[in-house]
Specification:
The chain is built from nine helices and 15 strands. By secondary structure, the protein is α+β, with helices and mostly antiparallel strands. The chain has a domain of about 90 residues: Orthogonal Bundle (Arc Repressor Mutant, subunit A). The longest helix has 20 residues. The protein binds zinc ion (ZN) (2 copies).
Length: about 300
């Protein structure tokens, strides 16, 4: 659903007013002081002392501007509210004021194309990248927040990148935006060109050329109705969200929890994904690392995942 211009204007006005409330450094200091306090709460005098403001009039004014939405007045003093927490969460993610580089970090996993060791790098464009220096394969790429690099050794950063990417992907695949909680449109986008079906056509998707898994014959395109979140997810990731499937994978010797995304063949190998001949709404994902021939077929609703009968 597209917002009417008048609705958009109202949203812009409301959002502008909320952002303007935060447009003074003393107000952010007040939020940060409450965030540091036990129970996120301080008395008037404790709060004033914590931010070190000598001018009582100025302090009272800026505190009053935060009241109602970001800070509540309680019997004990002033308490940080949910919107205040979310402002600080956004600041702590580091995306507004930090630019960090990490790596290259040598990984334990080898390139599935050529066998050379893989490397992880994080750059100031906020993208984490797992690549092979040998053949140049872009095994996995996804945005990561600078906050994820703080107080972690390089190996911990790599593990956090893996976990966070899984979390974002599985949330989006369930139709819920991991950033704004809005509704996500999901579409199985296939390389097969067939008119008259509701399936997307890969090459026509915006920014698809830049996508690390652009060699895959199908991906899941996800697009949030509310915010800017818009991306493509390897089809194999759908399997990670199904306990019955992950149990079967475990029986077949594929531990999806211990193995990072870039070492799971059914997630990163282009060859593992095939669009069913004659029915572009069905995609089969084979499991290259299983100790037996194993594959799963899913349809465009992503609801039904069934074991595929593979040709031996
Ligand atoms: Zn390689
Ligand atoms: Zn969203």
């Amino acid at each position: 659903m597209v917002d009417a211009p008048s609705d958009r204007n109202q949203v812009a006005t409301d959002a502008e007013s909320a952002f303007m409330t935060l447009s003074h450094d003393l107000r952010l200091e007040i939020l940060l002081a409450l965030w540091d306090a036990p129970g996120f709460s301080l008395s008037f005098s404790e709060l004033r002392k914590a931010v070190g403001e000598r001018d009582s009039g100025s302090f009272t004014y800026h505190l009053s501007e935060l009241r109602g939405q970001f800070v509540a007045k309680t019997d004990a003093g002033y308490e940080l509210q949910y919107p205040g927490h979310r402002v600080l969460d956004a600041i702590k993610s580091g995306v507004f004021h930090e630019q960090v580089t990490v790596g290259p970090v040598e990984l334990d996993d080898d390139c599935r194309e050529c066998g050379e060791g893989l490397r992880f790098e994080y750059d100031t464009d906020y993208i984490g990248r797992v690549r092979c220096l040998g053949c140049g394969d872009r095994t996995l790429e996804w945005p990561f927040d600078p906050g994820g690099t703080v107080d972690r050794e390089p190996e911990g950063i790599v593990a956090a990148f893996d976990r966070r990417t899984r979390l974002v992907w599985s949330c989006a695949l369930d139709g819920v935006c991991p950033f704004c909680a809005g509704r996500i449109d999901r579409e199985l986008a296939s390389r097969v060109h067939e008119l008259g079906t509701c399936i997307g056509v890969l090459e026509q998707l915006d920014r698809y050329d830049e996508y690390f898994a652009r060699e895959h014959s199908a991906v899941v395109s996800v697009d949030c109705d509310r915010c800017s979140f818009y991306s493509f997810i390897p089809v194999g990731v759908v399997l990670l969200t199904r306990p019955t499937v992950t149990a079967q994978l475990c029986d077949a010797g594929v531990d999806v929890r211990e193995t990072p995304l870039w070492a799971l063949g059914f997630v990163v190998d282009a060859d593992a994904v095939t669009v069913q001949e004659g029915d572009v709404t069905r995609v089969t994902v084979t499991i290259p690392d299983a100790n037996e021939p194993l594959g799963f077929t899913l349809d465009e609703s992503f609801e039904h995942v069934e074991e595929a009968s593979l040709d031996q």
